[in-house]
Amino acid sequence: MKSAFSLLLLSFSPSLFAQETLHLYAASSMTNAVNELIKHYQASHTTRVVPVFGGSSSLARQIERGAPADLFLAASDDWARYLIDKQNIGSEHVTLIAGNRVVLIQPATSSSASFDVNDRQQWQQRLAQSRLAVGNTDAVPVGIYAQQVLSSLGVWDEVRSYLAPTNNARSALALVERGEVALGMVYQTDAQSTDKVTTLTVFDDSLHDTIHYPLLRLSDKSNNQTFIDYVTSPAGKSILARYGFTTDMEHEQFAQ
């Protein structure tokens, strides 16, 4: 006769005992896409994926200080390389999964219909009584890309004193959504995620460094690669593309 404890064990699915948890630290601009990737991945795998979202620079430093991350999805090659250097990880642990664009946005309630990004006077006029929301230009990838764009356009000196720097792309977007600033520079995918802003300009890729989202494998957990394989599969790419990310990364190279 089976004991009550044995019967209790038999009443549970064996998969519960085999479940592994992965901690994924991901750039805030990937929030919506990553949440959906996790949802669909977990529907066919026993692995539980726990996301932590934030600015790439902040997350990288948390991981450096010992945060229990198994995977790190950065919004630039620089912050993936930062951890590679700090933790002596081989670049073979990096998979490029997506790309993005930088855009200029304004609140949807704004009456201005056009903007010449090459016109210094227009920048000064629009920002005279307001600010330009950007990521921190010293550390946050979207802010670094924004500074590169403004410098390439030759308007950095006119605009720099009007910046409203934030800790991540989503915070910059929120300032524009709430109408607290006249303009913002964020990722195209963030602008597409809300009807509270309108896009004035999609900046040419030549104005800034190529935007990569490298996914870095940090631990030896067996399902790390399984999750990466799903993200880079046709199903995973379809989800990323639906949120506006470019996914044709076969010819892209991680900047070592």
Automatic annotation (TrEMBL):
| A GO molecular-function annotation | molybdate ion binding
> Which superkingdom does the taxonomy of this entry point to?
Bacteria
Entries under InterPro entries matching the protein: ModA (IPR005950), ModA/WtpA (IPR050682)
Question: Which Pfam families does its entry note?
Answer: SBP_bac_11 (PF13531)
- Spans through the membrane: none
Q: Does the keyword Signal apply?
A: yes
Keyword annotations for this protein? Metal-binding, Molybdenum, Signal
List the GO terms this entry assigns under cellular component, sorted alphabetically.
outer membrane-bounded periplasmic space
- Leader sequence segment: 1-18
Q: Where does molybdate bind?
A: 29, 56, 187
- Please, one GO biological process term? molybdate ion transport
Family classification? Belongs to the bacterial solute-binding protein ModA family.
Quaternary structure and interacting proteins, as annotated: The complex is composed of two ATP-binding proteins (ModC), two transmembrane proteins (ModB) and a solute-binding protein (ModA).
Which protein are we looking at? Answer: Molybdate ABC transporter substrate-binding protein
Write the gene name: modA
